[in-house]
From TrEMBL:
Species for this entry: Lates japonicus
Positions of the Fibronectin type-III domain: 284-366, 367-459, 545-634
Classification via SMART domains: FN3
Domain called C-type lectin: residue spans: 61-161
Entry keyword set: Receptor, Repeat
Name this protein carries in UniProt: Receptor-type tyrosine-protein phosphatase eta
PANTHER family on file: RECEPTOR-TYPE TYROSINE-PROTEIN PHOSPHATASE ETA-LIKE, TENASCIN
């Protein structure tokens, strides 16, 4: 197993405009650009633009301490990472800080980018020009060579293509003026040299240059000079010696690879040398996703990792699952309802976890249970329910009518295992659909639990009672809203005497009632099993008079009366009165539920008129009357009358005496009548 050290950099899109190069040489990229056609230059510019775009990825760098050849190192990077590192002005400093020795990087003099090729190509195509591209295909936009590197192959001398020279003796007379010129050949990997055209020695053909197409030719001319014409010209062929070829630098490597020194500079090394190496890989930014979330499960899926992934490892709330998977999905089960979960999916590549794909979610909370209505009124409903197992932070209560019009909605935080909510105001006598939904995290909803119930109908109005001695009639106005029937109760002294159910009409007649009784009528409007608020009214039946009033006893100063109570009376109250017209005396009392009364402190010998009536709170019966006299306390008063007449013996006439006596009797009768006791008797003799 190899060991690695990871250096993570923030994404960068900057490119260093200053390119370090070895002393005395032009930038080969610039030189190559001059030799390219406009079409090829366009391709290069497009490539540079792509460098800017794709540099937005966040690379990660891995220092591999095991030593391998460049090809082996590259292969290992391609298997476990992406490629050997591509160096830029942005990452060189950070990477160099972590180096302890020389490391292979992803630059080779001649690199075959054809993934189907097993060998390095040395063709002169633009893609295989030396030091032109990194191993990942990026153009060489940055260089940081150690001084003296790269080592270039020594150039061959430039010679004329002719194989002989001609020498003529000089003329003694002036001849025509001529010019001497030379041509400068420049190649990317050669120093400049000149070939003079006025050489007169024979030369031998040489075919050691194969890259003339990449040369730039510049013609130079010299100042004209005088030439001596030969007297007799004769050309003599002679062999031309080859120029001395310089020896190749001992550090020159035909197919070299680049190693980065511990302080960041580059040098060439033999690609077969074994060195540690630096791999890189763009930080993997995948995204996990969950679907089909229930109270206890969820379907997890994720994106495929880059390259050859060994397997995927899943952690739930930082706890790793035991089983690895090679697929891109996993069913999560045995979860807790209403619970937040943080899931990380790690693509494992060469025993290395890539950047995790993250997703957070909440399982659905469970359903509330035992939802019920515990109280109905005409304008409200009170519900109770138990919260589900697992986690619940809030619950939503909604109420709608038959038209699905929202009547009530409330979101409330939980306060206990059992919750109670009063839903108001609601319409009277209305069918109400109530739903309760458990919530978690404010937005994650469980399944709704729904019940149907009714508000009670409204109260009746205008209840009116009409009574007679033995009957009662009740009338009222129906309530607004919906109702199905009425229930009427008739109470007497707190006890229900009659109950009438399913009454459709707004009235009810009761008969065979007790007289002078205080009856209470209670009326309910009914809708289904619900009763509206009760409305009640009380009234006495008309009282019947007592009967059989009589004197129970009498004395000189008191009278006792008794009577018989009316028939079918519950509890009676009586009004008793005693009156003496002669003395202008009036006595009045009320008695409860007794049928006798005694009047005291009366005047003897006086006739008293007695009456008794049955009374209620607002009504009174006819009177039962009787009169009686107290016992007299008798006293005699003598009355003498003197008769005188002009007629002799007129007063002695018996008829005259009787007439006067009757007149006197009538006088007393007019005065006392029968209101007091009195008697008038004629005295027969003076001694009687």
């Amino acid at each position: 197993m190899t060991t690695s050290h990871t250096v993570r950099l923030s994404p960068s899109v900057s490119v260093d405009a200053s390119v370090a190069w070895f002393s005395g040489e032009k930038d080969p990229l610039e030189a190559n650009m001059r030799t390219l056609s406009p079409k090829d230059r366009s391709c290069i510019l497009i490539s540079l633009a792509l460098v800017f775009v794709f540099n937005a990825a966040e690379p990660e760098y891995f220092l591999q301490n095991s030593s391998f050849s460049w090809d082996e190192a590259r292969n290992k990077c391609q298997v476990c990472f992406k490629e050997l590192v591509t160096l830029t002005s942005s990452n060189t400093h950070t990477i160099a800080q972590n180096l302890t020795s020389d490391y292979w990087v992803g630059l080779r003099k001649y690199l075959d980018l054809d993934p189907d090729s097993d060998s390095i190509s040395y063709s002169n195509g633009s893609h295989n020009r030396s030091w032109s591209r990194w191993a990942n295909g990026d153009p060489l936009a940055f260089q940081n060579w150690y001084p003296g590197w790269p080592v270039l192959k020594s150039p061959l001398p430039k010679i004329d293509c002719c194989s002989c020279s001609c020498t003529c003796p000089a003329a003694t007379t002036p001849g025509p003026t001529s010019f001497t010129g030379y041509t400068e050949f420049t190649t990317p990997n050669m120093t400049n040299f000149s070939l003079f055209e006025d050489m007169t020695e024979n030369v031998t053909d040489i075919t050691g240059f194969t890259n003339f197409t990449d040369q730039n030719v510049t013609d130079y001319t010299t100042t004209p000079r005088a030439q001596l014409l030969p007297i007799e010209a004769e050309c003599v062929r002679s062999p031309m010696l080859l120029p001395e070829v310089p020896q190749t630098d001992e550090n020159y490597i035909e197919d070299s690879c680049v190693a980065m020194l511990s302080f960041g500079a580059w040098v060439e090394k033999n690609c077969a040398d074994h060195l540690p190496y630096i791999c890189y890989e763009d930080r993997f930014f995948g995204k996990a996703n969950v679907t089909g979330v229930t109270v206890a499960s969820a379907s997890l899926s994720w994106e495929r990792g880059p390259g050859d992934i060994d397997h995927y490892r899943v952690e739930v709330n930082q706890q790793p699952l035991q089983n690895f998977t090679n697929g891109l999905s996993l069913e999560l089960s045995n979860l807790t309802a209403g619970t937040g979960y943080s899931v990380q999916v790690f693509a494992v590549k060469c025993e290395r976890d890539l950047n995790p794909q993250n997703v957070t979610f909440y399982t659905k909370p469970g359903k509330v249970s035992n939802l019920r209505v515990v109280q109905n009124t005409n304008i409200s409903l009170v519900i109770k329910f138990e919260l589900p197992e697992g986690n619940v932070t809030q619950f939503r209560v909604e109420a709608v009518n038959d038209s699905n019009h929202n009547l009530f909605e409330m979101v409330k935080s939980v306060s206990g295992k059992t919750e109670e909510v009063k839903i108001e105001p609601l319409l009277e006598g209305t069918k109400i659909t109530i739903s309760v939904t458990a919530l978690v995290n404010g937005t994650v909803e469980g399944d709704k639990v729904t019940i149907v119930n009714y508000t009670a109908p409204g109260p009746i109005s205008n209840l009116h009672l009409t009574t007679k001695a033995n009957s009662l009639n009740a009338t009222w106005s129906p309530p607004p809203g919906n109702f199905s029937s009425f229930t009427i109760k008739l109470n007497l002294e707190g006890k229900t005497e009659q109950t009438i159910k399913d009454r459709r009409e707004p009235n009810q007649y009761f008969d065979k009632l007790k007289t002078a009784a205080n009856y209470t009528v209670i009326v309910y409007s009914v809708s289904g099993h619900l009763y509206g608020p009760p409305v009640e009214c009380s009234k006495f039946t008309l009282p019947l008079p007592p009967t059989n009033a009589k004197v129970d006893s009498s004395t000189k100063t008191q009278l006792s009366f008794k009577w018989t109570a009316p028939e079918n009376i519950q509890t009676a109250k009586y009004s008793v009165k005693l009156e003496s017209k002669f003395w202008n005396h009036n006595l009045s009392f009320e008695v409860d539920n007794i049928t006798n009364y005694t009047f005291r402190n009366l005047i003897s010998g006086t006739r008293y008129n007695f009456e008794v009536r049955t009374v209620t709170e607002d009504q009174i019966s006819d009177a039962e009357n009787i009169s009686h006299c107290t016992e007299p306390d008798k006293r005699e008063i003598s009355l003498s009358m003197l008769c005188s007449s002009s007629e002799p013996l007129h007063c002695a006439n018996d008829n005259i005496k009787e007439s006067v006596f009757q007149q006197l009797k009538r006088r007393f009768a007019d005065l006392f009548k029968d209101q007091v006791f009195w008697e008038l008797k004629k005295q027969e003799s003076e001694n009687a």
